[in-house]
Amino acid sequence: MRWLVDGYNVIRRDADLRGQEALSLETGRTALLAAIAVAARRTGDDFTVVFDGARRAAAPPARGQVQVVFSRPPETADDVLRALAVRGGAGTVVASSDRAVRDAARRAGAVAVSAEDFAAALRATPAAAGADDDADDDDDGGPVKRGGNPRRPSRDARAAGRALARLRSI
């Protein structure tokens, strides 16, 4: 699975990461990347974290399971995320609370999760994962039938739940 993460969006939607960012932007980015690196090792998934602005440090870009991308003005991180989501399509999860980014991801066939839910899943321990992780796996992808259970989450919500459960449970 490939994860595309709206870096500053996630940082600013999580109290712990926001506190780190208050010290400096670099400290906030480092805290987020450290949490993502743990998830990448645990899941084996690839993560691309996109930030606005140019890289300030002279270090080469990261390779492997966690890659960092900085947008180049006038392009924004949101523009980069939308383009990556289109290229990734199905099998890609986009973590952002920006509605335009999430809508573009869904149109491209990717799963969209909120920044808050993504940050919470990063913090969750495997033992804290609920027993209902497999409860919604009965979606066959067939045509939409009217008259079903109105309390059942939408297909998009179930896909997002499965992606987040992957971060929590492995």
Q: Can you give a write-up of this model?
A:
The chain has 7 helices and 5 strands, in the order βαααββαβαβαα. The protein has a 5-stranded parallel β-sheet, sandwiched between helices. Helix 2 crosses helix 3 and helix 4 packs parallel to helix 5. 32% of the residues are buried. Helix 5 links the parallel strand 4 and strand 5. The radius of gyration is 16 Å and the shape is globular. It starts with a strand and ends with a helix. It is of the alpha/beta class and 170 residues long.
Main features:
170 residues, alpha/beta
Concise structural overview:
Helices cover 46% and strands 14% of the residues.
What is Rg?
16 Å
- Major β-sheet strand ordering: 3-2-1-4-5
Report the span from N to C terminus. Answer: 13 Å
Q: Tell me, briefly, the overall form.
A: globular
Mean pLDDT: 83
- Which structural class matches the secondary elements? alpha/beta
In sequence order, what are the helices and strands, one letter per element? Answer: EHHHEEHEHEHH
Q: What is the strand content?
A: 5-15%
Number of helices: 7
Low-confidence stretches: 127-139
Oligomer: single chain
Number of strands: 5
Helix content: 40-55%
- Report on the biggest sheet: 5 strands, parallel
Question: What's the arrangement of secondary structure elements?
Answer:
Blueprint: E1 2-6, H1 7-12, H2 15-23, H3 25-43, E2 46-51, E3 66-70, H4 77-88, E4 92-95, H5 99-107, E5 111-113, H6 115-123, H7 155-169
